[in-house]
Amino acid sequence: MPTNTSTRLNGQFALVTGASSGIGAAVAVALAAHGAAVVVNYSHDEDGANATVKTIADAGGQAYATQADVSQEAEVQKMFKQAIERWGTLHIVVANAGIQVDAPFLDMTLEQWQKVIDVNLTGQFLTLREAAREFVRRGPQPDLSRALGKLICMSSVHEVIPWAGHVNYASSKGGIMQLMKSTAQELAPHKIRVNSIAPGAIATPINLSARDTPEEEKALLTLIPYNRVGDPADIGNLAAWLASDEADYITGQTIFMDGGMTLYPGFADNG
Ligand code: NAD
Q1: What is the pTM of this model?
Q2: For residues 193 and 250, what is the distance between their CA atoms, to the nearest angstrom?
């Protein structure tokens, strides 16, 4: 649950992909806690998406769940069309959906490579493009926000930290860095802000196997100078702020939220 609430996103409509669990669910809940109505996208986990909607509704917010595979152009376009028909427009879109399909490089199949690129990178392209088209179609609403629209990509520390055994995932996140920056450069004249959040280790289903024994958790903490695994709400709170006018002059940036994982902790004792 978000640790604070405000009215900073009142009257705005948001869409979060992959919001049936983990970080996406926390982002959806946080956006709603700050006043946005939220479209909760999911691919397979309808129960998870309904739970996110219920959390929002129980707190007095507005949300509905919608199924779409973000790697499929027609499904993404249908999801946006339905949202716009229902709510008139969107102001905040968070491209969060992502997967890991891990394999040693020597054994990685084209299918394992392609699946991760399709969901993590092509999925973000399709989501950002449909969102930007809608922002431009709708035009400015300065009473709601200084920006025409706000796009947030869920990246990872692995947009800069190489990750053996996860070449497909790290490549997708490196690609998101340039997708975000190039899109931000192109869309800034339209007053559309595009930024990324790059989480470190956040406690969600995606990395359960890296935390399921005390030894594994201890090994993970050696990578985190701040000495705790992140909470999905940490990311949710940042997303709500980044989508608000308080962050109006930020575009084209990756904000690392990682407890210091990108500080090269292996060098803390002279390397
Ligand atoms: P998660 O597995 O809990 O959530 C992933 C979400 O994406 C789920 O809701 C899933 O249903 C959805 N999804 C998967 N494929 C989809 C598709 N084709 N179409 C639509 N939705 C789809 O994991 P998470 O940790 O919450 O991951 C969310 C994002 O955060 C991912 O992009 C991930 O790479 C990123 N991330 C997570 C961590 C971490 O430590 N948890 C760190 C860095 C980045």
Answers
A1: 0.97
A2: 7
User: How many angstroms separate the alpha carbon of residue 155 from the centre of ligand 1?
Assistant: 10
Query: DSSP code of 159?
Result: G
* Sign of the four-CA dihedral 250, 251, 257, 261: negative
Question: In the β-sheet with 37-42, what is the strand arrangement from edge to edge?
Answer: 63-67, 37-42, 13-16, 92-95, 149-154, 192-199, 254-257
Q: Indicate whether residue 30 lines ligand 1 (CB < 6 A).
A: no
CATH: 3.30.390.50, 3.40.50.720, 3.40.50.11540, 3.60.140.10. Which one for 13-257? Answer: 3.40.50.720
DSSP label at 230? B
Residue nearest to atom 9 of ligand 1 (CA): 18
Task: List Cβ neighbours of 152 (8 Å cut-off, separation of 6 or more).
Answer: 92, 93, 94, 95, 96, 194, 195, 196, 197, 239, 242, 243
Nearest partner of 98 among 36, 158, 161, judged by Cα: 158
What number of other Cβ atoms are within 10 A of residue 262's Cβ? 15
pLDDT tens readout for residues 106-157: 999 999 999 999 999 999 999 999 999 999 999 999 999 999 999 999 999 9
Question: What are the residues facing 42 on neighbouring strands?
Answer: 67
Longest dimension (CA), the chain: 58
Give the residue, out of 204, 208, 223, with the most ligand 1 atoms within 8 A of its beta carbon, to mutate for a pocket test: 204
Whether 179 has a pLDDT exceeding 80, the answer reads: yes
Helix axes 123-138, 73-87, angle to 10 degrees: 30
